[in-house]
Amino acid sequence: MAKRIVVANQKGGVGKTTTSINLSASLAVMEKKVLLVDCDPQGNGSSGLGFYPGDSRENVYSVLFEPERAKDAIYPTDIPYLSLMPASQDLVGAEIELIDKMGREYYLKDLVETVDDEYDYIIFDCPPSLGLLTVNALCAAKELLVPLQTEYYALEGVAQLLMTFELVKKRLNPDMSVLGVVLTMYDKRNRLARQVKNEVRKAFPDSLFETIIPRNVRLSEAPSFGKPAISYDAKSNGAMAYLSLAQEVVKRHGAEKKEK
Questions:
Q1: What count of Cα atoms within 13 Å lies in the side-chain half-sphere of residue 17?
Q2: CA–CA separation, 214 vs 186, rounded Å?
Q3: 54 pLDDT exceeds 80?
């Protein structure tokens, strides 16, 4: 069975999609079979891998209510071992369509379970909200990874996200756990960033990843070429940081196996 990780934070601009794309690509470089599921109607997770919203291909939305067709919406990327289930702008309507459906929180779970045994990792990129699409991703996943920008307002957003996580865990997905919190857009020259890092370490002593994602020009440039950083400039600080994060994720799962 795949390890299913949802990358979520309802605050926009914290590096959520950047983390989804580059963590997926880095795990694939480590020869893990990875499926990235883009649940955000904006489709940045898809365009960051060269799949642009608006074309006629099958996507998350077109198969959401027909889970037996999940494979029709999965495409190989330029990176071996990495596949994508792209988003569509029509996902905006999915929130409305799901409202009056029975078991509305589990449609994405039903969808990915049809392909679960074909991957080592399934990673969900979420919209910057706590709406039904994000709740569906939280119910479909087994672990939550929170990208956290090193600024003070970010901590307030995480508190709200963790409250939602606890509600989902209690009522909808009892198998859910927090994989970790990763600091993003970190500038070590900035005193505020260093202060926030220390505050986060106090708030999440057991969950914070050692790897810190720096502010990096290559990370910002890569999506405009439809590539993850490791394909765009493998030696850049950003690409190296996400490779380190992927190694840490795999290591955490290895430690869990030993404990069991």
A1: 24
A2: 4
A3: no
